[in-house]
Amino acid sequence: MLRLFSNFTIGGKDPITDSFGLVATATLAPVISLLILGIAMREEKGKR
Questions:
Q1: What residue segments make up the domains of the chain, in order of their start?
Q2: Do residues 18 and 12 touch, judged by C-beta distance below 8 A?
Q3: What digits encode the pLDDT tens for the residues 35-48?
Q4: Which among 9, 11, 17, 29 has most CB atoms closer than 10 A?
Q5: Cβ neighbours for 25, distance < 8 A, ≥ 6 positions apart
């Protein structure tokens, strides 16, 4: 995860790496948010 975000801080040295970081972050972000949502929903069900 950290290596992906380091691409943004370095700035356009390698366009291919930058675009890969953007694509990877764009695809990972919804997956991670869905995972967090799923865990949160499971926690809510467990409380009841």
A1: 2-47
A2: yes
A3: 999 999 998 888 76
A4: 17
A5: 4, 5
Give the pLDDT confidence of 2-47 residue by residue, as tens digits: 455 554 555 556 677 777 778 888 888 889 999 999 999 998 888 7
Position 31, amino acid: V
| Pair of tokens at residue 9 | 């801080």
Determine if residue 11 is left, alpha or beta; phi over 0 gives left, psi from -120 to 50 gives alpha, anything else beta.
Answer: left
How far out from the chain centre does Cα 41 lie? 20
pTM above 0.70, yes or no: no
Query: CA 5 to CA 17: how far, in whole Å?
Result: 11
Do 7 and 24 meet the contact criterion of CB atoms below 8 Å apart? no
